[in-house]
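User: Could you go from structure to sequence for me? I need the amino acid at each position, not a summary. Structure tokens:
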């Protein structure tokens, strides 16, 4: 066996071990595992340990980056499916209205304020500034869903956080592409964005939910067969691919979420379709199996985010802009979380969780390279070569920075929940002693 292969085996084993123990640490001490895994990725990067032991050189990382979109899309589909399996349909419907309002308000405020910052302090063209603001505007399902599921908050709030990450994922992709198309073509129809959003949500959701409903009957027939859980993964990828294929071209993310939602809510579907027998006893095993797959994929996704972090291309200006954008995100999320607390049926712990769930990730990492790809090749006069490194580095700073802030806020929120529970317990014991 070659030395590089041995080193790769050791690295993969180490990453999985660290991911497992990081998950245990979160369960016991409420410290999010993503933080440890990102820093592990930074350490394994070509500029630190990875370069010293020739585990990850810049050339090998460039080879990995060729398959980045495939890897990130796979991670997204699996994590969203896993999130859908664990969502209660009735809880989701209850939280939909407030989740949509808060999501759109937060995203619009972040896009406008980030664009204003770039326009005023970098003299960036306003359209390009809006593109960057949009790229940074959405939260990451790959980060939000695993953390939210483990937090001790209400199911309605967890559903809100899942829906926010899914909605913003679709919104930022559609809006960013529409804005870049407007820059290249000089114009874009005012009906383009609403039309694309309607297709992404309605068609993608319908395909995913219908496929999930029909797949329940397949699982009923296969529940005693070996590898029946793995065939569900195959069905998931077929559904995700079908949602994106021409001429449908909707959202694979929404389709994956709704596919998991249908399978995870088979009890509700059975009540709504009383003429159909849905005797399925293996849904818990499916959830456990896909939770393990999701753990494996997201562990390497978080490490990858650390791997792509490069110190050599950063300068002080990138850091200042990145920190300023993180500050904008913190202020806006605090404001909208307090607004949700006032107008919605949320308690303080729910509002604090809503405030904490600000990490950027998958969509931002993928979209960060698109302005260079689309605009520089067209020879747009507003594009400067320095913008390529600026946008990529600022996005990476925001991804890692918001993740660190979210980890701290999650730890703070969980400690507040512990303190509240202790106070309730003491009050209860005091009342019983007074009787």
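Assistant: Here is the amino acid at each position, in order:
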């Amino acid at each position: 066996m070659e030395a590089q292969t041995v080193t790769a085996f050791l690295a993969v084993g180490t990453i999985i071990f660290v991911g497992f123990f990081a998950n245990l640490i979160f369960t016991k001490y409420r410290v999010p595992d993503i933080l440890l895994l990102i820093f592990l990725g930074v350490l394994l990067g070509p500029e630190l340990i990875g370069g010293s032991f020739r585990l990850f050189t810049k050339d090998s990382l460039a080879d990995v980056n060729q398959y980045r979109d495939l890897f990130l899309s796979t991670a997204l589909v699996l994590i969203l499916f896993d999130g859908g399996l664990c969502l209660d349909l009735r809880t989701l419907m209850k939280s939909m209205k407030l989740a949509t309002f808060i999501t759109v308000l937060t995203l619009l405020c972040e896009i406008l304020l980030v664009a204003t910052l770039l326009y005023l302090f970098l003299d960036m063209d306003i359209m390009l500034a809006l593109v960057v603001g949009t790229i940074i505007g959405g939260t990451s399902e790959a980060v939000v869903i695993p953390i939210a599921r483990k937090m001790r908050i209400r199911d309605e709030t967890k559903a809100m956080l899942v829906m926010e990450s899914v909605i913003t994922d679709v919104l930022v992709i559609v809006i960013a592409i529409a804005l870049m198309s407007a820059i290249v073509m000089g114009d874009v129809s005012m009906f383009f964005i609403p039309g694309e959003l309607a297709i992404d949500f309605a068609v993608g959701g319908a395909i995913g939910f219908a496929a999930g409903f029909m797949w329940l009957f397949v699982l009923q027939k296969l529940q005693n067969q070996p590898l029946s859980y793995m065939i569900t993964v195959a069905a998931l990828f077929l559904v995700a691919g079908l949602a994106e294929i021409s001429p449908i071209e909707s959202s694979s993310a929404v389709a994956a979420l709704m596919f998991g939602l249908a399978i995870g809510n088979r009890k509700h579907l059975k009540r709504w379709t009383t003429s159909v027998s849905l005797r399925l006893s293996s849904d818990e095993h499916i959830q456990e199996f896909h939770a393990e797959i999701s753990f494996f994929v997201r562990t390497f996704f978080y490490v990858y985010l650390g791997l792509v972090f490069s110190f050599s291309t950063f300068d002080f200006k990138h850091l200042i802009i990145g920190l300023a954008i993180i500050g904008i995100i913190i202020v806006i999320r605090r404001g909208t979380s307090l607004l949700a607390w006032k107008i919605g049926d949320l308690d303080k712990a729910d509002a604090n969780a809503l405030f904490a769930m600000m990490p950027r990730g998958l969509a931002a990492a993928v979209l960060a390279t698109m302005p260079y790809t689309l605009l520089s090749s067209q020879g747009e006069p507003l594009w400067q070569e320095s913008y390529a490194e600026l946008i990529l580095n600022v996005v990476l700073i925001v991804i890692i920075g918001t993740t660190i802030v979210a980890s701290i806020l999650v730890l703070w929120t969980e400690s507040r929940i512990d303190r509240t529970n202790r106070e309730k317990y003491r009050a209860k014991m005091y009342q019983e002693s007074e009787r």
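One structural detail worth keeping in mind: The radius of gyration is 22 Å.
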